[in-house]
Amino acid sequence: MTQSAVIVTGAASGIGYACAHDLLTDGVPVAATDIGEIPAALVNAGDCLTLSFDVSAEQSCQEAIAAATARFGGVRALIHFAGIHHTKTWDEVTGEDFAHVYAVNVTGSFLMARAAAGQMQDSGGSIVLTASGGVELGGVGGDGRGGPAYISSKAAIRGLTRSLARSLGKYGIRVNAVSPGATETPMIGTYDNAVRDGAIARIALPEDIADVARFLIEDGSRFITGQIVPVNGGSAFG
């Protein structure tokens, strides 16, 4: 596989930023994308193309892949961290809320994966999506925690990952997902103090999640596909 680019979405902050930064530091060309502005620190860290767009817009996803391909000569991996949180409880959430969360978290994941796969069909590659440990816990919302719209959108990523792994395997494209537990990102800034204090012993650093995502695009994971990889410090065990 050639040393073409890795696309990292959600790279303006949190896990996406950590992942893009570490790849650049290791000398990997990166297309760093987000709906917001990409920090200058990423541009200064290595060979970085910055792109700002909405992953729920199909044409924008296609254009991003085309821009990365034109700049770097190819795309060997997509690590997709872009997404939105949503904390309304079952009796607060609306149909419009669900539609918006699904458009970004589910449709956006599919559109980016499909655009990347179209470029990887001849050479193979790897796609990493992002699920959530909240699916196993059955998050109910409130107090800054994920509610039904968010949790069900992340459950959909599990099915999407396995469907795409089967669909794209014949092209030599592997598809997996990381499933983070609580992580020190802006998302948990919405937790109230009691919830945060209860989770503090098992809050991961962004790098803890990013390192697993990076592993899933490298040769050491060449026989892993269609998997949802928990990265939660054992929180699933209670």
Brief summary:
The protein is of the alpha/beta class. Helix content is 42%, strand content 16%.
Spatially, the strands of the biggest sheet line up as 3-2-1-4-5-6-7
Secondary-structure element string: EHEHEHEHEHHEHHE
Content-based structural category = alpha/beta
Largest sheet: 7 strands, parallel
The parts where pLDDT drops under 50 for at least 5 residues are: none
Q: Tell how many strands the DSSP assignment holds.
A: 7
Provide the β-strand percentage band: 15-25%
Mean pLDDT reading? 92
**Judging from the principal axes of the Cα atoms, what is the shape?**
globular
Helical percentage: 40-55%
**Euclidean distance between termini CA atoms:** 41 Å
Explain how this protein is built.
This protein has 238 residues and is of the alpha/beta class. It is built from eight helices and seven strands; from the N terminus they run βαβαβαβαβααβααβ. The chain has helices spanning 14-25, 40-43, 58-72, 95-120, 134-137, 148-168, 193-199, 206-215, and strands at residues 5-9, 30-34, 48-52, 75-80, 125-130, 173-180, 228-231. The protein has a seven-stranded parallel sheet with strand order 3-2-1-4-5-6-7, sandwiched between helices. α4 packs parallel to α6 (148-168). The longest helix is centred in the middle third of the chain and has 26 residues, at 95-120.
